[in-house]
Design goal:
By secondary structure, the protein is α/β, with parallel strands linked by helices. It is 39% helix and 12% strand. The protein has 19 helices and 15 strands. The strands form four sheets. The chain has an eight-stranded parallel β-sheet with strand order 4-13-12-11-10-7-6-5. Strands 1-14-15 form a three-stranded antiparallel β-sheet. Strands 2-3 form a two-stranded antiparallel sheet. α5 packs across α16 and α10 crosses α11. It is globular and about 100 Å long. Bound molecules: flavin mononucleotide. The site of flavin mononucleotide (FMN) has 28 residues, from α15. The site of flavin mononucleotide has 28 residues, from α15.
Length: 543
């Protein structure tokens, strides 16, 4: 229980009152006349039962919300239980207001708990709605035994290539996430043998406890490898990157939910632990500038990439970004061509991706959605014959096996999920991440609130969610008659474009042939307009 002051929170008030009523009724009972004794006795009995429920809530590990809201959390479960009945009377369809629908979250919770994730009665989706998509199955389905699909990153350039799972934990910093959340995610990654991206907040002591595979993300703040003035420190970087737990290094250029917008962790949230992990002073605003200082041109960026690969002892190095001006990505590709240096991977983050906190205009109206960004990156690398050297990761609302399959069909080699794994940790989508008042201890630095999340319990749920999503992917892939999800292509997915018309994604979307862009860029509008504006010497558009 530690510092009692931390427990004096409004969310414990109801329980405190019940304990008070119970103690008072028990204390006065012996002094009452018989009929009053019956009444107060009943009160003592009921409040006593509630006290027992409350104590059990505080110490059980399965449901985070009960640990943070003893006794009153059961009201939520009661409402959830009668929700379908009352919904049509009181509540509009909440899918319009929140990023993930109730059905989507329920599926993740089921897979995380390892309970039956099947559904009776057929689909809840409207198969005649525009944009409804499906995978065509085969008359000769295949049964795939091994669901643990991998893709090798850094095969051509690294002395330590990494066999990456097709579904991993996307970058989320310690600081945005609680220590217990980081512990559970990393232990889950260890149990499942998949990767856990640190986010730009660097590697904390909580990432190290269980030894799960890490992708170390280096943002513009160079946390964990910086000098006191905030500049990049190669020696510190090398010492950390050579740790066997670090499997890959990812330079963060931007994330989908707030591209072009730096980050500030307010001083009040920069605890001693966060300061230690990031190598910044405690209690002082921790700034992530909107852009990097170690490189200012595409060529310098490629050279920095090659330097990190060397300093890490030959581990895969790549970058993560949300697509903005197409000429900037083209400029990076021209720099790859000019220098002969290629990243081992590119992670494309869709504008629909998540964040701990960002201005609404950025989350709603800045950055390119995953579909278009992934296509442009895949097509450009194919068109320049660079695709075999550069693997592509995709992120942005990927939480089900169909989401994974769809991203692979559009050109990705693997997928990452942020909020999917937050749901596996018990996130209720309260959307309170930016307040520090997360009800399930996922995105808070409050020591009592994060006590709600029991790492050992949630770690197993993280591993279950990963496993059961890939098992579902194996079933989907086999049903289509394929032996590996890597064989999924746009010709396997159909989209409804109107009530009377459906189209294959391979016909609906543009796919470029290998080497096509080396000959000419005239065929496709985006290249016709932006290719010549791109220069390997500058991110700015050529006049
Ligand atoms: C709480 C939270 C913190 C995040 N922190 C980072 C970060 O430090 N670096 C980064 O590149 N992306 C960060 N992201 C973005 C995710 O890595 C991911 O790209 C995005 O959320 C993808 O979408 P998904 O949540 O729909 O899977 C964060 C997202 C969330 C929800």
């Amino acid at each position: 229980m530690g510092n009692i002051g931390l427990w004096l929170q409004p969310r414990y008030a109801a329980f405190a009152v019940i304990v008070g009523v119970f103690l008072a009724s028990v204390l006065v009972l012996p002094f009452l006349i018989p009929w009053a004794m019956a009444t107060v006795g009943l009160v003592a009995l009921v409040s006593g039962l509630l006290v027992a429920v409350g104590i059990r809530d505080l110490y059980q590990s399965k449901q985070s919300i009960r640990r943070n809201y003893p006794v009153i959390a059961h009201l939520r479960f009661l409402l959830e239980f009668i929700r379908p009945e009352i919904r049509q009377y009181f509540l509009e369809d909440d899918q319009e207001r929140i990023p993930f629908s109730r059905a989507q979250r329920a599926l993740v919770y089921q897979r995380a708990k390892g309970v039956v994730d099947k559904r009776p009665f057929g689909t809840q989706l409207d198969v005649y709605a525009d944009d409804y998509e499906w995978i065509n199955h085969s008359m000769h389905p295949v049964h795939i035994h091994d669901w643990n699909f991998r893709t090798r990153v850094g095969e051509h350039t690294c002395s330590q290539p990494y066999d990456l799972s097709l579904f991993n934990i996307s970058a989320m910093s310690f600081g945005a996430l609680s220590a217990n959340a980081v512990l559970a995610l990393n232990k889950g990654a260890k149990i499942g043998g998949f990767a856990h991206d640190t986010g730009e907040g660097s590697i904390s002591s909580y990432h190290r406890v269980h030894g799960g595979d890490l992708i170390w993300e280096i943002g513009s703040g160079y946390f964990g490898c910086r000098n006191d003035d905030g500049s990049f420190d190669a020696e510190r970087f090398s010492a950390c990157a050579r740790d066997p737990q670090v499997k890959m290094v990812e330079i963060k250029l931007s994330q989908g939910a707030k591209p072009g917008h730096g980050g500030v962790l307010p001083g009040a949230k920069v605890t001693r632990e966060i300061a230690l992990a990031r190598g910044v002073p405690q209690g002082v605003d921790c700034i992530s500038p909107a852009s990097h200082s170690v490189f200012t041109t595409p060529i310098e960026m490629m050279e920095f990439l090659a330097r990190l690969r060397e300093l890490s002892g030959g581990k895969p190095v790549g970058f993560k970004f949300a697509l903005g001006h197409p000429w900037e990505f083209f400029a990076m590709c021209k720099a790859m061509m000019k220098t002969g240096i290629t990243p081992d991977f590119v992670v494309v983050d869709g504008a629909e991706g998540g964040t701990g906190a960002a201005p609404v205009e950025f989350t709603d109206h800045v950055g390119t959605p995953l579909q278009e960004a992934l296509l442009l990156v895949h097509n450009t690398l194919v068109g320049l014959n660079l695709r075999s050297r550069v693997k592509i990761g995709a992120a942005g609302k990927v939480i089900t096996a169909f989401d994974v399959a769809r991203s692979l069909a559009l050109g990705a080699d693997w997928t990452n999920s942020g909020r999917g794994f937050m749901f596996a940790l018990g996130c209720l989508q309260a959307q309170a991440c930016h307040t520090g008042h997360c009800p399930t201890g996922v995105t808070t630095q409050d020591p009592v609130r994060q006590r709600a999340l029991v790492p050992d319990d949630k770690a197993q749920r993280v591993a279950n969610y990963h496993r059961n999503t890939l098992v579902a992917l194996a079933e989907l892939t086999g049903a289509a008659g394929l032996t590996h999800p890597g064989r999924l292509g746009p010709q396997h997915i159909v989209r409804r474009v109107s009530t009377s018309e459906v189209r294959l994604l391979s016909h609906l979307l543009t796919f470029i042939k290998p080497g096509e862009l080396l000959e000419s860029q005239a065929q496709h509008a985006v290249y016709r307009v932006f290719w010549n504006m791109a220069s390997a010497e500058s991110f700015a558009p050529a006049a």
